[in-house]
Fold these 2 entries.
Entry 1:
Amino acid sequence: MNPFSYGAAVKGENFYDRKEDCKRIVDTLAGGNNLVLYAPRRFGKTSLVFRAIEQLERQNFICVYFDFMPVFSPESFVRLYAKALAAKQSNLQKFAKTFVSIVKSIRPVLGFGQDGTPEFSIDFASSTVDEAVVSQLLDLPELMAKSSKRVLVFFDEFQEVEKLKGIYFEGLLRSKIQQQRRVSYLFFGSKTHLMQAMFNDKKRAFYNAASQMTISYLPEKDTVAFLQQNFAKKGIRLDEEMAQYIISATANIPHYIQLLAAEIWQAAESSASITHEAVNKSILQVLALKGDYYMELFDRQSNSKKQLLLALCRDGKNIFSEAYIRANNLPNSATLQRAVTGLTSDGIIDKTGREYFISDPFFKLFLKDFSL
């Protein structure tokens, strides 16, 4: 079985390092405080959070993970959040009674899934989901908490609460969090700029609502060791130079390290040694598989965005300086700022410190043929 994992949260042996980051999350939430986690896309936020959940559950916390991405309306939030809360209950009948006592206008339904396990759902047939119903549902985590077990809620893709602005969800949730004493929250999402705006803008409900932390690149020495150990499982030799080459080709972003390593591992023969040629062949394989998508992605950008993307293939520092604009034949600062905002919002580019970069290193490699 391929030891390299990508495309989903990385767990078990495929998760490595981040020990200090994990400890920060565990200690903050266990201490009764709220936390917001920032990081560019594909840096392993969700995998890190699931590792923290594993540790916190061993400490007797009730951990509720909820992804806002599928939410598109108040009804979908109520249905999905109620289901996520119910999933952490050992007695669904008791939970249903608690639900009815709090959310009085919605009828819960207990049934069985396709595998025969008990399943909780709700019936909207004769009810309207409004701000009052959502408010009542947000009280449930506090009631789920026990004297021996506190509840921790993990809100993934939290920037998507923008979809619920019609019911003033941000302000509503903030007021609940301020009242709850046995529940702590972790907020994280893939659109860092939106998350930062939510928690750092004085006009927003979540201003200063949580402690803040960021994660960055993994230490290269740990990544080298991880790669070598996993290739060794197939009897494949990977020296440090080749490991560093893989890290460089993938911009040291965990998701893409695992993706490229998986391609190399799949193509390599047992007892082989990984060479530059083998790595380059696997890079070309990834580019071939995603080439049509990359071409379409580039084609649909405006000219100013295309110019910026090609410039970022060379350098991403001081992009608003006159020297950078002149050297890369970019539009004026106002137009450039709109291009940056658009590409960032779409997740195509991101920023660490003062440097902008193309989020997908393989897309960057694809674009280099255009930037010559």
Entry 2:
Amino acid sequence: MTSTEKPAASTGRDGTPGHFVTLTFERDVAAPLPVLWQAWAAPAARAVWAAPTPSVTVTFLEADTRVGGREISLCKVAGQPDIRCECGWLEVQPERRSVNYEVVSSGGVTQSSALVTAGFSGTNEKSRLVVTVQLSASAGDMEAGYRQGFEAGLRNLAGVATRTMVLQRLIRAPRSAVWNTWMNPKTLPQWWGPDGFSCRTKRIDLRAGGEWVFDMIAPDGTVFPNHHLYTEVRPEERLGYLLLWGENGPKHADAWASFEDQDGATQVTLGMVFSTEAEFQEAKGFGAIELGLQTLGKLERAVKARQDAA
């Protein structure tokens, strides 16, 4: 549902008439509230649903969903000038509310600016998102563009949320200790995977642009080939990577891990946007949530073992 208040007159930067309008977008989402929030806020997930249509390519140059952080992206359409969007986060209340400014420009000329307020509510079964956009546009077609863009983007977001898996664990150790246990080529293969599983590494390079090619071996000897491609590494904050079915195989998920300090402990969030809802349902069916939580439990034990040995 979309509602619009009556637009008011304004003036563009070059003195030409512009207008101010408030747009409201509401959407019910068939996903738990914590999952919807992660799909909205996690940069790796935002990159999946940001493009309104397949003909638009969105490239993220910068992404930091924290108060004071920025997100800068380029929207590319064949045969048209690139559109630059700068977003600055003014308020971030997880699972409740976010507020950001947004400035859209093309060829170095500002086309519009907006204040975007998103409100979240829901349960562990379903959720609701209400987005209010206070838009000041100097280009005449920006209102229509915002309507189309937000309707399509939120439709994409709702779809992404229904195939997103979010796992969390509070580890009572400093963030540096947790990060160093994860992003260490020696220790990562020692704890990765559910209880009883082991890893056999072929190549490992834990940097942005690097990869980890390995086999995960189940207790009964079944081998599961894996390939992680690292797209982002922000020390002690987050990492993003692609999950492939075996070495250079098809992608089955966009994944990320974030590390948040909580009074000396570390909140670890592991998120995955599966390529299709069918893959998500299949993963849930064989117990991926429970197995993933076991993996985070092994991480916690590995952190504690390193601390005890220090």
